[in-house]
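We were asked to recover a plausible sequence for a given structure. The inputs and outputs are reproduced exactly as logged, with field labels preserved.

PROBLEM: sequence recovery
POSITIONS: 427
GIVEN STRUCTURE:
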């Protein structure tokens, strides 16, 4: 029996071992980390690999160059490559704005990622640890014991009641004063993931600008098609962004194949994907590494079922059949069931909409958009009567949401991976 998780994962990738491709972005990242006064903004579609890239940046920032070395990018690592203490925070939709975000940051007690762990405090014990399993030069700090009085930072950093911006500044300054030298670091890198879910982003850009210095750098990451839709007041950060804007696009075919190659290695070459199976999986995944990983896992499950060690046409077909019946990818199937409810009409329309996209020609121009006018005729043909009543359901959060409205008559699949899944699923 093979454990699918040995080679595949649907989690964010923290280990450089499992991370493939994205060489250009890693190159930019090495440069940006080494430049003063710059901001990193990672954006792209859902499931495309943003958070995994962000975690790799965090790793590199600590001074662990396993990944760039593996990519033969040693020549880009300068002798004085800056190293950072890092803070990582994942936003959620309860954060309504700038103040709430800072409040979360200054209160985050996460032992490996939280800001509070770095603020000096009597009795607090920090140890160095490597974010990758491999032991490397670059280490970050992990808390093993909080201060004697619990979280008590007042001696080094003053908490200013009612002024979270100043408190945040004080915390950062105390880290700069007391920790950077001690641990041989040049600055603090604050990584903020799922930035897109913050309701009101007003003012965050200018705050980031005012805080960014040769010692403090931010990296923000979220779903967006461009920087300006991620950072509302992007004008204030434009100059900081000259190098740090990092669009994460769908993976090229060759990199999807690499995920499968890497998985074979991670299984110690005890399993094998035949060439055609790799090609097919990569092609069906449309550049979404998430899908490659799900396909990979599902293939291993089938291998176990048949006691085989080679993913060939037979195994892949078994997987495709399971997907058709909704049995292979449980998380996507749950979404599917929620979207269609018990309505056959909604199910029909969902399939129609997801196919419509594939038939479009101007794909590059307006990726992922669905034009109702193109669907309407077919819908009538299939006897979907009340299309205009079903669409609002698909936009409703309660059922997904599956679609978001772009403008009148034009919608977008909120999750492109889900759209692909619907196409693979049988009616
Ligand atoms: N560079 C990569 N190499 C291999 N797998 C990746 C890579 N980037 C992402 N993945 C896989 O894709 C999935 C989605 O990645 P994630 O970083 O969570 O995307 P996003 O944050 O854009 O939604 C995860 O299952 C992850 O394992
Ligand atoms: Mg993410």
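RECOVERED SEQUENCE:
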């Amino acid at each position: 029996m093979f454990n699918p998780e040995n080679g595949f994962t649907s989690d964010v990738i923290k280990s450089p071992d499992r991370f493939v491709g994205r060489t250009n972005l890693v190159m930019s990242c090495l440069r940006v980390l080494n430049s003063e006064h710059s901001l990193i903004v990672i954006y792209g579609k859902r499931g495309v690999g943003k958070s995994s890239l962000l975690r790799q940046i965090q790793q590199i920032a600590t001074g662990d160059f396993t990944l760039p070395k593996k990519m033969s990018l040693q020549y880009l690592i300068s002798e004085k490559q800056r190293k950072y203490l890092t803070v990582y925070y994942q936003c959620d939709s309860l954060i309504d704005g700038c103040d709430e975000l800072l409040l979360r940051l200054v209160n985050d007690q996460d032992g490996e990622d939280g800001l509070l762990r770095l603020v000096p405090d009597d009795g607090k014990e920090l140890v160095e640890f490597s974010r990758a399993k491999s032991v490397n030069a670059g280490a970050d700090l992990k808390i093993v014991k909080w201060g004697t009085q619990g979280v008590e930072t007042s001696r080094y950093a003053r908490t200013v009641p009612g002024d979270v911006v100043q408190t945040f500044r004080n915390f950062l300054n105390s880290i700069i004063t007391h920790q950077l030298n001690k641990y041989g670091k040049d600055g603090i890198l604050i990584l903020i993931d799922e930035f897109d879910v913050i309701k009101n982003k007003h003012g965050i850009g200018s705050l980031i600008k005012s805080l960014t210095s040769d010692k403090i750098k931010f990296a923000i990451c979220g779903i967006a098609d461009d920087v300006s839709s991620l950072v509302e007041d992007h004008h204030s950060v434009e100059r900081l962004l000259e190098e740090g804007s990092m669009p994460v696009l769908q993976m090229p075919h060759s990199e999807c194949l690499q995920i499968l190659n890497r998985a074979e290695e991670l299984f110690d070459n005890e399993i094998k994907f035949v060439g055609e199976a790799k090609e097919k999986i990569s092609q069906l995944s449309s550049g979404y590494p998430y899908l490659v990983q799900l396909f990979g896992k599902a293939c291993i499950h089938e291998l176990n079922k048949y006691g085989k060690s080679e993913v060939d046409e037979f195994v892949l077909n078994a997987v495709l059949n399971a997907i058709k019946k909704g049995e292979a990818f449980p998380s996507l199937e749950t979404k599917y069931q929620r979207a269609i409810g018990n309505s056959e009409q909604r199910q029909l329309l969902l399939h129609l909409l997801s196919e419509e996209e594939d038939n479009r020609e101007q794909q590059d121009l307006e990726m992922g958009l669905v034009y109702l006018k193109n669907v309407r005729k077919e819908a009538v043909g299939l006897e979907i009567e009340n299309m205009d009543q079903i669409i609002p359901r698909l936009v409703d959060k309660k059922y997904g949401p599956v679609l978001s409205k772009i403008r009148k008559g034009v919608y977008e699949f909120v999750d492109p991976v889900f759209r692909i899944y619907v196409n693979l699923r049988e009616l």
